[in-house]
């Protein structure tokens, strides 16, 4: 599936002899990413939350030679379980059982029309999934918004976490306190309805990949654009708006000193992510998303935290340099 998407994207760029091709139609997917194939079998966790039946999609990849440990990978706002593919393969080869869920409101999971999205609720959903699978003390690896979720999970269930790994987490600063103006859910919704493959690609190039675009990133643009432009785009956009509101109104930075599990921070130094930064005045905007400073401050605030820095990488180091990142991740997870 991913090779097909990539081939189509490349074909759209040029024809033999340098003649431009007609733009290829953008694939569209259902509200639960129907039609987009994941690299591993997708399983479903059926449960009731806030008086409604929901389903959480997840990947459960078991190693050929188990080491007795489990890694739970928590995706970011514009990511899915499938975007962890390289890490799943590397961790599985190293002996880890790997669980990668799609959170409620994201990707292949339910898109409820009325749901109080909080990090506590998403942590409780994840804890229920792990209880169902019989997993008691996993290593939590959270990226971006998944890093905020992982931090909340560790605060809620400190005895149920072996180790916490935060990969360019957002929430390292309080954007509202620094001057980002308040934004209504309706405004987030209208913005999400306007998302296109072009806008996704431009944002990811500047933020995720430190200005360096490569064709291998294209399937993930297609995934998001197809979800946001599909037959359930209003439901997708509404849940996305609710999730943005959750992110900006529940800063976790103030609770870092309370984290009581071993923590590894993995920070791409060219990251500049700050939700709502484009809505802030220019004098405020320039002070936001300084990850070289934010990573060091977080490492000082979290008791005993270790910091690994990637000087040339942006918000998604696990995707920009999967081999280097995976080696650092497995080394960091093996350390006492």
From TrEMBL:
The keyword Signal applies. GO terms for biological process: acylglycerol catabolic process. Its EC number is 3.1.1.5. It is an enzyme of class 3 (hydrolase). Gene3D superfamilies: alpha/beta hydrolase. Residues 1-21 form the signal peptide. It comes from the Bacteria. It holds the Pfam family Abhydrolase_1. InterPro entries: AB_hydrolase_1, AB_hydrolase_fold, AB_hydrolase_sf, Epox_hydrolase-like. Keywords: Hydrolase, Signal. One of its GO terms (molecular function) is phosphatidylcholine lysophospholipase activity. Transmembrane segments: none annotated. Residues 72-274 form the AB hydrolase-1 domain. One of its GO terms (cellular component) is membrane. PANTHER family: HYDROLASE, PUTATIVE (AFU_ORTHOLOGUE AFUA_2G14860)-RELATED (PTHR43798:SF33), MONOACYLGLYCEROL LIPASE (PTHR43798). This is 2-hydroxymuconate semialdehyde hydrolase.
């Amino acid at each position: 599936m991913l090779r097909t998407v990539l081939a189509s994207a490349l074909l759209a760029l040029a024809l033999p002899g340098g003649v431009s091709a007609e733009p290829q139609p953008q694939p569209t997917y259902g509200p639960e990413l129907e039609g987009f194939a994941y690299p591993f079998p997708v399983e479903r966790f059926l449960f009731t939350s806030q008086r409604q039946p929901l389903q959480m999609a997840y990947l459960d990849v078991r190693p050929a030679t188990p080491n007795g440990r489990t890694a739970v990978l928590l995706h970011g706002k514009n990511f899915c379980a499938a975007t962890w593919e390289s890490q799943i393969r590397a961790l599985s080869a190293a002996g880890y059982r790997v669980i990668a869920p799609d959170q409620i409101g994201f990707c292949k999971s339910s898109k409820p029309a009325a749901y109080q999205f909080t990090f506590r609720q998403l942590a409780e959903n994840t804890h229920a999934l792990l209880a169902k699978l019989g997993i008691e003390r996993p290593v939590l690896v959270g990226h971006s918004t998944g890093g905020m979720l992982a931090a909340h999970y560790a605060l809620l269930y400190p005895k149920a976490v072996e180790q916490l790994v935060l990969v360019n987490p957002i929430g390292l600063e309080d954007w509202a306190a620094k001057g980002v103006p308040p934004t209504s859910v309706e405004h987030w919704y209208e913005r999400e309805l306007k998302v296109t493959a072009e806008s996704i690609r431009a944002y990811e190039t500047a933020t995720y990949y430190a200005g360096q675009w490569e064709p291998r990133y294209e399937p993930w643009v297609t995934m998001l654009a197809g979800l946001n432009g599909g037959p359930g785009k209003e439901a997708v956009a509404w849940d996305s708006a609710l999730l943005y509101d959750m992110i900006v109104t529940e800063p976790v930075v103030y609770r870092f000193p309370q984290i009581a599990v071993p923590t590894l921070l993995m920070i791409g130094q060219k990251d500049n992510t700050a939700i709502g930064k484009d809505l802030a005045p220019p004098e405020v905007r320039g002070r936001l998303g300084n990850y070289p400073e934010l990573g060091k401050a977080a490492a000082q605030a979290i008791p005993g935290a270790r910091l690994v820095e990637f000087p040339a990488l942006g918000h998604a180091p696990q995707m920009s340099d999967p081999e280097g990142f995976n080696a650092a991740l497995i080394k960091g997870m093996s350390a006492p």
